[in-house]
Amino acid sequence: MSQCHLLLGTNIGDKKHNLLQARELIIARIGKIIKPSAIYQTSAWGKEDQDDFLNQVLAIETEQSPEVLLGKCLDIEKDLGRVRFEHWGERLIDIDILYYGDQVITSQRLTVPHPEIQNRRFTLVPLVEIAPEYKHPKMNQTNKDLLGLCTDPLEVVKIE
User: Fold this and answer.
1) Mind listing the GO molecular function terms for this protein (predicted)?
2) Best CATH choice for the domain 2-158 from the list 3.30.70.330, 3.30.70.560, 3.10.450.50, 1.20.120.330
3) Is 82 designated active site?
């Protein structure tokens, strides 16, 4: 079993329901959720002229390899109705692999740790909630330290 951290994000439709459906499919298809963060609201990042996002980080245990995990995350997105229109655009659901244990993976399809963790407050705030002392395997800094260094100005508000 490997422990992984996933980031869920949504900004279309019934956002809380989208997160719930994604969590249910993750349990059914990928593995056990060990620890979920609270749900957080933040303004859109990268492409700002869209509705606010709800985000949540999940610590999970899985037997899936990183490549299979990626495929299952993409399948869940598709099955929930995600259509990719534009980079950083609106999305019904987005599932990003933040960490896969302490592995560093660089392939054509997958980069782990996620290359933007340290730049995104909407990722770091829920990550610090559930794994503050986890060390980024490439940067050798804890999530808590990365949040302290993050220059992203977007406010991240806990909603539940």
Assistant:
1) 2-amino-4-hydroxy-6-hydroxymethyldihydropteridine diphosphokinase activity; ATP binding; kinase activity
2) 3.30.70.560
3) yes
